[in-house]
Sequence to fold (279 residues):
Amino acid sequence: MSNVTIVTDSAGDIPVDIAADLGIVVVPLSIRFGEEEYTDCVDLTPAEFWAKCASSDKLPETAAPSPGAFAEAFEAARSAGAPGVVCLTISGELSGTYQSALTAAESIDGFEVVVIDTRAVTMAEGLLTIVAAEAAASGASVADIVALVGENLDRVGVVGSLDTLEHLKKGGRVGGAQALLGSMLSIKPLLELKDGRVAEAGRQRTRAKAISHLAKVVTEAGPYARIAVAHGSAPDVDTLLAKLADVECDTPMIVTEIGSVVGTHGGPGIIGICWLRRP
Fold:
């Protein structure tokens, strides 16, 4: 019999090779630029997404996968002989994806499907999914995997910084004058994950100071079981990686590109560190 199947959504920004190696099934969200609709990470790569954002005056719109898309993934797992499915989603505070997956699970009869709201996003969600997938690969049951993820939910964290206010301006989150002033002053908003939402965690006057601040926060809060650096076409990601070189972590650091789901609101140059603290 096959192992438990782990399903997630594309907001987790899990590198394609890691998802493939661990057999993680990724159900993509969709992205709409005006009348053009794309399937996240299927027919719109992160690089193509950033290029389209640069040429558009308005933010694209993101949409959660339909319950049918999740149901299809769950039924495929049953057909493949899996004893059950554990599905981890982006925070229900940020997207309708969790509710969509839950609706799909409730429509499946005679097959165990458990849906977990990770209360996280990008690689914070991704790291929890990887933990679940590694447990599944070792033969863990649905109940064991659910318990393991539950134990790790409070160990997850995210800090990040925006490089531009342009996407917040396009999305109506800040006015044009405020965005212009912020850009002139080189203000870089800092972000954190709090109660399932992305919240402002302060500001730095320059990009260099923002990068140093992120590294300091993470360096002081270790040690870690896992760390991932996620960025949206950030040219200075190596600067951050160098500052994190001595951080104590039980597993190799993952570096990945932020896709269109988070990138829509964060804008190019967004950079963040996601972690799972050591038990």
Remarks:
- The domain at 5-154 is CATH 3.40.50.10170 (Rossmann fold).
- The two ends are 31 Å apart (CA to CA).
